[in-house]
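Cross-check.
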Amino acid sequence: MNWFFLTLGYSGLSPKAPGTMGTLVSLPIGMAILIYFDTTTLFLAALLISVIAIKVINQYEQETGNHDDQRIVIDELAGMWFALSIAPAISVASNQVLTLSNGFLIESLLSFVLFRYFDITKPSIIGRIDREAPGGVGVMGDDIIAGFAAGISSAALWQGWIYLSQNLF
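Predicted model, tokenized:
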């Protein structure tokens, strides 16, 4: 069960880009939670999964001696869900998901791209947490901060686009 959890339904076992695969699995699930529930539910679910994952990752590392195994992608789920809970600032009905003007789909995809960017490049504090924080906190922490950075960046870009389109076009 722990391996299923840590690899996010075995998506982390992908031979190519396991982190991206884990994020791709996380995206539609997070979007569905936003559609059928709300941002608070998604945020709290990401927080709960993060706390559980830190404990499970600590156990895994203690048993195997392997820190930050690339097959562990539950951290991608947490980061992606934090990004999604910040970025799409509106609730949408399931029949409005594909309506581009409400920003839900655009912000969700932008959050995905920005999260992968921050997670891969690890700028500033994201890289420092990844390098210096021990155990599950290090594995989860960089993705959580990358998720916050992606969500804030996505929201800012979308709001900037709205402002420019209303004032320039």
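The helical segments are 2-6, 18-36, 39-64, 74-86, 104-121, 124-132, 135-168. The chain has one domain: 2-168. Passed to J.P. for a second look.
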